[in-house]
Amino acid sequence: MELKKLLETRYSVYEHSVHKLQGATFALVRGSKGRRLFLSEPLSGFSGEALAEGGLLCPLTVENAFALEHVFSWLSPQRILEEEASFGFGDRLGLATPGHIRALSSAAVFPILVQQSVRENARTDRTFEEVLAQGIFGAFQEGYEAGFGADADHLKRIGDALHAADLGYTLFTCDPGDYVVAAERLSLQEAQRQFALLPEADDFRREYLGRTFEIDGIGSLAFSEEELIRAAVKYGNAVDFADKLYHALTVRLPQGFDYEVSVDETETPTTPLEHLFVAHELRRRGVDFVSLAPRFVGAMEKGVDWRGDLEAFRRELRAHAAIARAVGSYRLSLHSGSDKFTLYPFLAKETRGLWHVKTAGTSYLIALEVAAHRAPVLFREIAQFSMEQFAKDRASYHISADPSLIPSLEGLSDDELPKIIEEHNGRQVLHVAFGSVLRSHLGNKLRLVLDKWEEEHYEGLAQHLGRHLDGLEVRNGG
Ligand SMILES: [Zn+2]
């Protein structure tokens, strides 16, 4: 009773987080110093400030998150449910998970609530540990017991994958992009020369030449010698790396894990025939993957809708989906999923519901919307800084923004600031600067604003990500 009173007078309690176990009460609370984990009695594994009235007030550290996960198994990341589509809710600030959970509102989709790439972590000075801990606290805050996955995204090194495996990540996204060669740009002679250097060159000839692959829905596919040579030069070494990374993980995680292979960040699109080569090679080497991210046609740019020839996209998507079903019912993965509203209905339909979508930048932009409404001075600083950083930050991202086309900040009243986020160029410039902003003094200021306007932030996320899920047709009633 005294504890209840204490909580009521000095802290506000996140009501969905209140859980009792073996006589102890656990809750996430908010006091003058922000969010804390409250325990009604000290328990081993947790560290914090002992309260005079009894109980323990724990900061939201990695250690306390892992201790909490140990107590409540629904906070441990889980593997993707086979029969459901899956959706990645990347969170670059570590504050978005409650909003992401609200976006779900009984959607028929398996959520990956923890999803950051090695590159995102480097840009935001975060670790796989911190990202996972923030997801765990977010799920606890909302009392979300339905299960979620954790994606160690865009892995380019085996050591990073094994580290994430040790922490409890469940989905490992292999990015062999560094090994992909733009073989379609080589002369045939040069392609032949590189093909001959591949250790499996003879193997490839035996496996593919003169063979027909029956693909239900699109007919039969066969490789000409030149097509095989170019596909193998383009993706042969990439497949080798994906194979190595996978088998390193099987040793570390004999109980199983989810594996994705993504070549989405390469220069040229993946043709259906190349997709067939990659998927068939992975299967042949015993790589059991749950999803594959080809590089789709058209402008798959960060943070904005897709642009390109929609009929061509649809035709290719249909072929990719048919191949995925024929080679072994894995899901097609759409990265840079943020705001690809045009594509969602096609993705849902052509894959017959077996898709994975990854987003992250769009949630950061929702955070900036809160700043634009509630802290216009800070938002102006962030926008100005993002423009200054653009030349540097745009590297390694697919974007087309021209900062000179962004409406001038001086010319806009505070009420008009959200225009910068809505407009194509501004949206991309803000989007790619997330790392520079979050690492600077502006990052902490932004976090304070989001903390203060917490509910507004969550509701903005719930609405916007909810629109994504509606586009993908997995929420009833919207
Ligand atoms: Zn990607």
Task: Give a brief outline of the structure.
The chain has helices spanning 2-10, 62-71, 97-104, 118-124, 128-142, 158-167, 188-197, 201-208, 225-252, 272-284, 310-328, 344-350, 361-374, 376-393, 418-422, 424-432, 434-439, 441-452, 454-471, and strands at 12-13, 19-21, 24-31, 34-39, 49-50, 56-58, 85-89, 109-117, 149-155, 171-174, 212-215, 219-222, 258-262, 291-293, 331-334, 355-359. Helices cover 47% and strands 15% of the residues.
Q: What order do the helices and strands come in, and which of them pair?
A:
Blueprint: H1 2-10, E1 12-13, E2 19-21, E3 24-31, E4 34-39, E5 49-50, E6 56-58, H2 62-71, E7 85-89, H3 97-104, E8 109-117, H4 118-124, H5 128-142, E9 149-155, H6 158-167, E10 171-174, H7 188-197, H8 201-208, E11 212-215, E12 219-222, H9 225-252, E13 258-262, H10 272-284, E14 291-293, H11 310-328, E15 331-334, H12 344-350, E16 355-359, H13 361-374, H14 376-393, H15 418-422, H16 424-432, H17 434-439, H18 441-452, H19 454-471
Helix pairs in contact: 2-5, 3-5, 3-19, 6-9, 7-9, 9-10, 10-11, 13-14, 13-16, 13-19, 14-16, 18-19
The structure holds zinc ion.
The major sheet is characterized as: 8 strands, parallel, barrel
Name the average pLDDT. Answer: 94
Low-confidence stretches: none
Q: Could you tell me the strand content as a percent range?
A: 15-25%
Provide the structure class: alpha/beta
